UniProtKB/TrEMBL annotation:
PANTHER family: OXALATE-BINDING PROTEIN. Gene3D superfamilies: Jelly Rolls. This is Cupin domain-containing protein. It comes from Alteromonas portus. The keyword Signal does not apply. InterPro entries: Cupin_2 (IPR013096), GPI/OXD (IPR051610), RmlC-like_jellyroll (IPR014710), RmlC_Cupin_sf (IPR011051). GO terms for molecular function: metal ion binding. It comes from the Bacteria. The keyword Metal-binding applies. Signal peptide: none annotated. Keywords: Metal-binding.
Length: 334
């Protein structure tokens, strides 16, 4: 096995966890699949498979859900970003999920601030998939809305203070010296904001509104278009800012390749995770060729020489996540 293959996760090879969280048996939430692609993630089940454990300064995950399946209301200790890879989705805010709602379609991106309870539901006709980025190497634990604890108890699940999950229906017992997680209090709820639909829409960038340009440090003189999605403006990259411009600890860009388009060999100086939304891309990394297709994730070694070339007849759209609020300019190799 090559070093690069250890950094590649094919969509069809994703290993799901179907009981990652306390709401795993709650009606409407009992069919979701969670994926930890890079980093430890926030799963409460120690059996959750981690595909790539290399620290990046952020975590990459995924959620796959059938129509009508929802993820219960919760909040995080770090920034949480979703790309709608497949399907149509509703994102809701508020401890009961009735403060604000926004509908998102394939290619759209949302960044949900830490001080918001959020949930999401597949409202499309087929299986939906979300690609997710969470901040920091250790993104901490999930804070669940109070009603999630009540429903979990009805189905024999107990969340522990150390973040573990006990399934009493399997004969598991609460370990000695470890207390159950207290139900989320009114004081904790009060630390979260209440927003409306218009404010939630400000957390979204629609695919149709991506500010694509081929005059960036990476794409100048090519037929490739680049758009900043997450993070402040970056003078080194010749990228402006979008409305998702607050500090995340990582930045996200979109690259759009017309048929035949390519980017020549260059180096980057941060962790660079490539996710294919549409089409196919050929990467050459230190001379080794990789074909990436829809749903594939690849993390490029820092300092490795890499190039990109579109493959096939379909326009390729990829999302790139790098450590830090901004990245250094690429260094092209003659």
């Amino acid at each position: 096995m090559s070093v690069l293959s250890e950094r590649l996760v094919r969509y069809e090879e994703l290993i799901p966890c179907r009981n990652a969280f306390i709401d795993t048996r709650s009606p409407g939430s009992d069919q979701k699949e969670n994926f930890t692609i890079i980093g430890p993630g926030v799963a409460e089940n120690p059996d959750q498979h981690v595909h790539i454990a290399i620290p990046h300064g952020f975590n990459i995950g995924g959620a796959r859900q059938p129509p009508g399946c929802l993820n219960s209301q919760h909040s995080h200790l770090t920034e949480e970003v979703f790309v709608v890879s497949q399907g149509s989705w509703h994102f809701t805010t508020g401890v009961e999920g009735n403060d604000a709602v926004v509908r998102m379609e394939e290619g759209d991106i949302i960044s949900i601030p830490m001080d918001l309870f959020r949930g999401f539901e597949n409202v499309g006709d087929g299986t939906g998939y979300l690609y997710a980025v969470l901040g920091q190497d250790d993104p901490g634990r999930v804070l669940w809305a109070p009603q999630v604890f009540d429903m979990a108890s009805d189905y024999g699940l107990v969340l522990l203070e150390n973040g573990g999950l006990v399934d009493t229906t399997l004969g598991q017992k609460i370990p000695e010296g470890v207390a159950p997680m207290p139900k989320t209090s009114a004081e904790q709820i009060a630390q979260h904001r209440v927003i409306d639909d218009e404010e939630l829409e400000q957390c979204v960038v629609r695919l149709a509104d991506f500010p694509f340009s081929n005059n960036t440090a990476l794409t100048q003189g090519t037929d490739v278009l680049e758009a900043p999605l997450i993070g402040p403006s970056s003078a080194d990259e010749k990228l402006g800012e979008t409305k998702l411009n607050w500090s995340h600890g990582f930045c996200v860009r979109a690259l759009k390749f017309k048929p035949g388009a390519f980017i020549t060999t260059h180096k980057r100086f941060e962790e660079e995770v490539v996710y294919v939304q549409n089409g196919s891309i050929k990467m050459l990394v230190d001379g080794e060729a990789l074909i990436l297709n829809k749903g594939d994730t690849f993390t490029t070694p820092i300092g490795a020489a890499r190039s990109f070339a579109q493959q096939g007849d379909e326009v390729a759209l990829i999302y790139v996540t790098r450590r830090g609020d901004t990245a250094k300019a690429p260094e092209f190799i003659d």
